[in-house]
User: Fold this.
Amino acid sequence: MAELKICGITRRDDRLLVERAGADYCGVILEFPPSPRSVTVEQAGEIFAEAKIRVVGVLVNKPLEFAERVWQQLGLHAVQLHGDEPPEEVRRAKARLRCEVWKVIHLPPGTEEPDDQRDLEQRISAYVAAGADTLLFDTSDVQKGQRRYGGTGRPFNWQFFRTLISHLKAQAGGLPPVRVFLAGGLNVDNVSQAIAGLCPAGIDVSSGVELSPGVKDPEKVRAMVEQVKGHRSA
Assistant:
């Protein structure tokens, strides 16, 4: 019964589209200029005024004071820490914000695997122990010498992800209850395979339902909702 978050909302019309199509969450990228889907806090206030859908604010390496301000101004359901924030930042956010705190785990694209699986597992366990409500696995890569924190349109190594989660659950004490969302290169052609094969709690999609960066495609949005909801009732 996967939930669906459609991210990178830049226009009020797209928020209404996603809301009416039946997605569970809208994601908005706040003040991260490298992303073509970034909007200011003021723009987000206009886009999500009177929204009936749960809104997730995506923050990349922002200070906690910024997270607290946007949570209050926008009435966010969740703050998604999408950069290199350490586990202690998750712990501090949980203590200061009265909303959910999501943490993104970055994996390399394609068939690549992280350099140090043990270190990755330790970091994941630390984020869970710090109180993260959701772990969102996304593809990250380096292009022209710059780190891309998602929005690549490329999937990561699904087999590695499956092995990683199985190993974490098999460790002493297992993986404590935490939702796992899947992002990275998902679209209407592969999302059913992702849900069936990886069993995530949720799906996060942006470029896979767009006409151009930041502009959603109504047909793709509706098709994505239908695909995910089909698995909910399966």
